[in-house]
Amino acid sequence: MSPPSTFTPPPPEDRTEAFLRLLTQHDRQLALYVTGLVPAAQDAQDILQEGKVVMWRCFDRFELGTNFPAWARKILFHQVIAHRRRVKKENTETIGARALELLSDEAESAITEGRWVAREQALAQCLAKLNADHRNIIQMRYRDEASIDRIARAVERTETAVYRLLSRLRQNLYQCVERSSQTQTP
Fold first, then answer.
1. How far apart are CA 84 and CA 103, in angstroms?
2. pLDDT tens-digit profile of 22-56?
3. Which one of 61, 88, 127, 172 is least enclosed by Cβ atoms within 10 Å?
4. How many H helices and E strands in the chain?
């Protein structure tokens, strides 16, 4: 007679539900992690989606009750590495693997400490303080990923003027977020 098992794996449909529940619970945290490692929003989104597919394929190896976010971040980190390899030929200015590991550690630390959430909330408040024209330019550039040329045509300014304005706006937003972060720190 074999010894009794302490863990009985749930039926496949229960594992599917467990995966979806865990992924939904930690989705925002995982998105912040990838966004912290990849500068281009669309690349980060692609990496996150591919990472979710890999997580699903490997979920049968995940032990329920253990640290899902850590397991998922490890998979996403490898997806970021794979992405860097794919684009390395296109971009000669890639950061080194050790620097990426340090960024990964910092991103993980910031997520677990809630710093990114606080900074994201501060950024939303700072964006709300901008006048509508400036907020529109920021949204065109970073949400819509519009080119400087396209923005310049839309707002009827020169490309140089748009570059300068975006530079000033980024600096002002950075300072606003920093001030907000300093007032929230105990």
1. 14
2. 999 988 888 888 888 887 778 889 999 999 999 99
3. 61
4. 8, 0
